[in-house]
Write a sequence for this structure.
C-alpha cells in the first residue's frame, strides 16, 4: 500500500530522516516507535505531503504523494491539534469531515454512534467548542474523525498520549478492530512500547532518522524493544 | 553564604525580573525582524500623532479664536465629552491588556499584589495616556500666556488629565465587556448625529461640568472630584485584579456556550456549501474575524468623507471611484485580505483532507462576492448625494468583484502570518501589511481603477470613465477560470512554506 523509496529529509546539514526502502503492505497494522527526534512525525508529515522530501519519493497506493493529490480520498490522519477546527462543536466537526469525504449526516451519525463508549459522555451534546475541550477529549474527537468515510489508510501520531487509562484501553480495542479489517492499513506511532506491541503486527524502530529494527510482533517483541531502548 | 529567602519582600528585584522578561519576549520573538520593522513603523505613527497633537495644542486656541467660535476654552470643554468617549473607544480597541503573560508568574515567590501593581503600573506609561499631554500641556500654556487665571487653568488641566487616566482604568475593567461597550458607542454616535443636525445638543449638559473645573472660586474644589474618582478607580481595579488572579477566574479564557448549527440551506451549493458553512461559523464565533467583518462594513460610511464635500482634498470625480472601491470593498479588504490566514490554526487538516484547492478558493471568492453585493445594496443611501455618487460605488463594486477579489486571494498566498482567532489586539495593522508582494498588489487594487477612470473621464467623456472601470471588472470576471487556475498554482507552490510559517508562530 505504501512504499518508500530513498526518502531523506534534511534541515541545513542535519539529516532528520533517511529511509532507503520501506514497504507497508495493504491491511497491515504498522507501529512506529522511537525516542523524541527520531523522525516519527517527520515521516508521517512526508506521507501526508505536509513537508517536502529532500530526496526520494513516497507512493501511497501507487500515487506519488508530492506529485498528485489522488491519495487524499482514501487516506486520513490525526497528527495533532492542528487537525481540529477550534470554533466548531464536535458534531459540526464530524459532519464537516463527513461532507469532505462524501458522507451524509446519517452516515456520520451511525459511525460516531459506535464510539459512545469511547467518548465516555464527554464529547457529544456538550455545548462546547473544540477549543474549549480538554486535550484528551480533543484527541478523542480527532481520532474518531479520522475513521469517517472508510479510509484505506489511517495515520495516527501518538494516539495514546494524553488519554486517560480507560480510554487508552478502549482505543487499543478500536485500533485492533480497525486492523482486523484487511482493507485498512493502520499506521500508529507511540512512545509506549506496551501499547504498540499490543495493537501492531509489525513494529519499526526509528533512531535518529534511520530504521534500526523491523520486527514482526511476537511474544518476545516487547522484551526486545525494551532491551533496545534501555541502551 | 547560606541561602537567604528574600524574593517575596523585595519589590526592586522583582521589578528587575519583570523587565528582563519583557526585554526577552521582545527580542526573542520568533518574528523579531518583521516585528522590528513593524515597531519602527509604530514609532513613526506615534511621532505623527504627537506632532498632530502638539500642533493642535499650540494652535487650536488661535484657530478657534480666529473662527470667532467664542472662548476657546469653552469650545474645547464643549467637545470634551466626545473626546473622552472616543479615547475610551480607541483604548478599548487597541490598548493591550496588562494581564497577558502573568500566568507563569503566579506560583513564583512574588506577592500577588506586586504582580498586580506592576501590571497596572505598566499601563500608566502607555502611549494612550501620555499622548493627550501633547495636546493639553501646550494648550494650557497658551491659555496662561493669554492671561487666563493660572489657578483656574491648573485646576482645569489637572481635572481633565485625571479624567483621561480614569479612562485608562475604566478600559482595563471593561475589557471584554462587548455588551456594555457597543451600546455606549452607538449612543454616542446617535448624540453626535443629533448635535450635527441641531436637534439635540448633549454638550449643553456636559460642557458646564468641564467648565466647573475652571470657573473660580470653586474650580479647584471641583477639580478634586475627578482626582478622587481616579483614586477610587485605581483601588477598584487593583482589587478586581487581585481577586481575579486565578486560573479559573480572571485569567481563564472565557467559554461561550456552543450551539450546533446546520445551515442546511447552504447544502444546495454542494462542496462549496461545506466551506461556506465553515466560513460563516468562523466569522460568527471568533472575536478577531468578527471585528474584521464589522470594521469592513463600517467602510460603508467612509464615502461620507468624499460625497458630502467635507474634505476638500477628496473632491473631483476620480476620488469618487476611490471611495466607491472602499465603500463596496470593506469586507474584501478586511476579511479577504487575510485568506488563507484565517484557517491558519488548522491548515494541516485542510491540506491533508480530501479538499481541492479550487473548492476552497471558490468558497472564499463567493463569500467576498456576496458581501460586496450586500454592501453595495446597503450603501444605496448614497443616492441621496446624487446618482454619480452611487454610480461610483456600483462601478467600484463591479471592479471589486471582477478584479480585486482575485487580487486579494492572490496576495493571500504570500501572507504567511498565522492569525490568532481568539484575540482582537492585532485586528488593525498587523505586520502582514509589510509584505512587499502584498504591497505591490495594492497598486492594481486601488491605483489601476483610478487611472482607468481618469483616462475615460478626461479623454472621452464622464460616462466613458464609469464604463471603463465597469468594463475592466466584467473583463476580469470573464477570465475567472484562467485566473483561478493561476491562483491555484501559486497556492500549491507556496503550500509547504505556508504550512511551516503557520506552525512556527502558532
Amino acid at each position: 500500500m505504501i512504499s518508500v523509496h530513498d526518502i531523506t529529509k534534511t534541515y541545513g546539514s542535519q539529516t532528520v530522516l533517511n529511509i532507503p526502502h520501506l514497504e507497508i503492505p495493504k491491511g497491515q497494522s504498522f507501529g512506529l516507535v522511537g525516542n523524541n527526534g527520531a523522525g516519527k512525525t517527520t515521516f508521517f508529515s512526508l506521507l501526508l505531503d505536509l513537508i517536502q522530501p529532500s530526496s526520494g519519493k513516497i507512493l501511497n497506493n501507487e500515487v506519488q504523494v508530492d506529485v498528485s493529490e489522488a491519495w487524499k480520498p482514501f487516506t486520513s490522519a490525526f497528527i495533532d491539534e492542528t487537525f481540529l477546527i477550534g470554533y466548531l462543536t464536535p458534531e459540526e466537526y464530524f459532519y464537516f469531515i463527513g461532507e469532505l469525504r462524501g458522507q451524509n449526516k446519517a452516515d456520520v451519525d451511525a459511525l460516531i454512534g459506535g464510539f459512545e463508549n469511547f467518548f465516555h459522555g464527554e464529547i457529544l451534546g456538550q455545548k462546547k467548542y473544540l477549543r474549549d475541550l480538554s486535550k484528551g477529549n480533543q484527541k478523542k474527537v480527532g481520532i474518531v474523525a479520522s475513521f469517517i468515510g472508510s479510509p484505506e489508510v489511517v495515520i495516527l501520531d501518538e494516539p495514546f498520549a494524553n488519554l486517560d487509562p480507560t480510554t487508552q484501553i478502549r482505543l487499543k480495542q478500536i485500533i485492533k478492530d480497525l486492523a482486523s479489517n484487511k482493507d485498512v492499513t493502520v499506521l500508529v506511532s507511540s512512545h509506549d512500547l506496551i501499547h504498540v506491541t499490543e495493537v501492531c503486527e509489525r513494529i519499526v524502530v526509528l533512531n535518529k532518522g534511520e530504521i534500526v529494527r523491523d520486527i514482526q510482533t511476537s511474544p518476545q517483541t516487547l522484551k526486545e524493544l525494551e532491551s533496545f531502548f534501555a541502551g | 553564604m547560606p541561602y537567604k529567602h528574600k524574593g517575596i519582600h523585595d519589590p526592586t528585584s522583582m521589578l528587575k525580573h519583570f523587565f528582563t522578561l519583557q526585554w526577552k519576549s521582545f527580542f526573542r520573538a520568533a518574528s523579531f525582524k518583521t516585528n522590528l520593522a513593524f515597531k519602527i513603523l509604530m514609532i513613526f505613527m506615534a511621532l505623527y500623532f504627537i506632532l498632530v497633537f502638539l500642533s493642535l495644542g499650540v494652535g487650536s486656541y488661535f484657530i478657534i479664536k480666529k473662527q470667532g467660535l467664542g472662548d476657546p476654552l469653552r469650545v474645547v470643554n464643549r467637545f470634551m465629552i466626545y473626546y473622552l468617549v472616543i479615547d475610551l473607544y480607541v483604548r478599548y480597541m487597541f490598548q493591550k491588556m496588562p494581564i497577558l503573560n502573568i500566568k507563569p508568574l503566579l506560583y513564583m515567590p512574588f506577592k500577588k499584589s506586586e504582580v498586580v501593581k506592576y501590571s497596572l503600573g505598566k499601563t500608566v506609561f502607555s502611549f494612550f495616556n501620555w499622548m493627550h499631554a501633547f495636546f493639553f500641556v501646550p494648550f494650557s500654556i497658551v491659555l496662561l500666556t493669554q492671561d487666563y487665571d493660572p489657578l483656574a487653568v491648573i485646576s482645569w488641566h489637572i481635572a481633565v488629565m485625571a479624567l483621561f487616566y480614569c479612562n485608562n482604568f475604566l478600559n482595563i475593567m471593561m475589557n471584554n465587556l462587548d455588551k456594555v461597550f457597543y451600546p455606549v458607542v452607538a449612543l454616542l454616535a446617535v448624540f453626535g448625529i443629533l448635535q450635527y443636525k441641531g436637534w439635540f445638543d448633549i454638550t449643553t449638559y456636559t460642557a458646564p461640568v468641564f467648565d466647573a473645573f475652571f470657573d473660580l472660586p470653586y474650580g479647584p474644589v471641583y477639580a478634586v472630584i475627578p482626582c478622587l474618582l481616579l483614586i477610587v478607580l485605581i483601588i477598584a481595579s487593583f482589587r478586581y485584579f487581585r481577586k481575579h488572579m486565578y486560573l479559573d477566574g480572571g485569567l481563564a479564557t472565557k467559554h461561550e456556550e456552543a450551539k450546533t448549527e446546520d445551515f442546511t440551506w447552504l447544502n444546495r451549493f454542494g462542496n462549496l456549501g461545506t466551506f461556506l458553512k465553515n466560513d460563516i461559523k468562523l466569522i460568527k464565533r471568533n472575536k478577531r474575524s468578527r471585528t474584521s467583518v464589522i470594521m469592513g462594513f463600517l467602510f460603508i460610511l467612509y464615502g461620507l468623507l468624499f460625497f458630502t464635500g467635507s474634505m476638500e482634498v477628496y473632491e473631483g470625480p476620480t476620488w469618487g471611484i476611490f471611495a466607491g472601491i472602499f465603500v463596496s470593498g470593506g469586507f474584501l479588504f478586511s476579511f479577504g485580505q487575510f485568506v488563507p490566514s484565517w484557517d491558519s490554526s488548522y491548515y494541516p487538516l485542510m491540506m491533508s483532507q480530501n479538499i481541492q484547492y479550487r473548492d476552497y478558493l471558490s468558497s472564499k471568492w463567493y463569500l467576498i462576492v456576496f458581501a460586496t453585493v450586500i454592501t453595495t445594496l446597503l450603501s444605496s443611501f448614497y443616492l441621496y448625494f446624487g446618482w454619480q455618487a452611487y454610480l461610483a460605488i456600483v462601478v467600484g463594486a463591479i471592479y471589486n468583484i471582477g478584479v480585486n477579489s482575485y487580487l486579494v486571494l492572490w496576495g493571500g498566498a504570500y501572507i504567511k502570518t498565522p492569525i490568532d482567532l481568539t484575540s482582537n489586539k492585532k485586528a488593525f495593522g498587523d505586520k502582514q501589511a509589510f509584505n512587499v508582494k502584498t504591497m505591490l498588489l495594492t497598486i492594481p487594487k486601488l491605483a489601476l481603477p483610478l487611472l482607468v477612470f481618469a483616462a475615460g473621464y478626461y479623454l472621452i467623456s464622464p460616462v466613458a470613465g464609469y464604463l471603463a472601470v465597469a468594463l475592466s471588472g466584467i473583463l476580469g470576471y470573464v477570465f475567472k477560470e484562467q485566473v483561478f487556475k493561476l491562483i491555484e498554482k501559486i497556492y500549491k507552490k507556496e503550500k509547504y512554506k505556508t504550512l511551516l510559517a503557520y506552525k512556527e508562530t502558532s
Chain B touches chain A through 34 residues (CB under 8 Å). The two ends of chain B are 44 Å apart (CA to CA).
